[in-house]
Write a structure and sequence with these properties.
mainly alpha, about 0% strand, CCDC34, Coiled-coil domain-containing protein
């Protein structure tokens, strides 16, 4: 009976040790799974942080490019406006020069017309005076 009791105690001890070993193994597996889960989460968070950093950098580059484009566009519009203004000034100057030439031509024409009129008047006067002189000479000499 002692022997049976000892065997039973040994068997119980083996069962207890087996149970403890299974619990330790179960704890180790849970710990291992938890570590793997944490590692996956850490890698995922790292990946997400890197992606967020890349996205932020891309957005910043886009904003910078957009700002540069707006600055370039503003500069181009200012250049176009300045060019248009210069062309308008040039056109106004050309129109003013044409007007001045026209006025000068009209003045020269009026002076020429006045001079011609005066010359015609003088010519007529000379003709009249010459005729008068001839008439008076003929009258003096009593040829008429």
């Amino acid at each position: 009976m002692n022997l049976q009791l000892e065997k039973r105690k040994e068997k119980q001890e083996l069962e207890r040790k087996k149970k403890i070993a299974e619990e330790k193994h179960k704890e180790w597996v849970q710990k291992k799974n938890e570590e793997e889960r944490r590692e996956k989460e850490r890698k995922l968070l790292k990946k997400m942080a890197e992606k967020a950093a890349r996205d932020l950098q891309r957005i910043q580059l886009q904003e910078k490019a957009k700002g540069k484009y707006k600055e370039w566009l503003k500069k181009k519009r200012a250049e176009e406006s300045e060019k248009k203004k210069k062309e308008e000034e040039k056109e106004q100057k050309r129109v003013a020069e044409l007007q001045e030439k026209k006025e000068k031509s009209e003045k020269i024409f009026r002076e020429w017309l006045q001079h011609t009129h005066t010359m015609m008047s003088i010519s007529i006067l000379w003709q009249c005076q010459a005729s008068w002189c001839l008439f008076s000479s003929l009258f003096k000499w009593k040829l008429i």
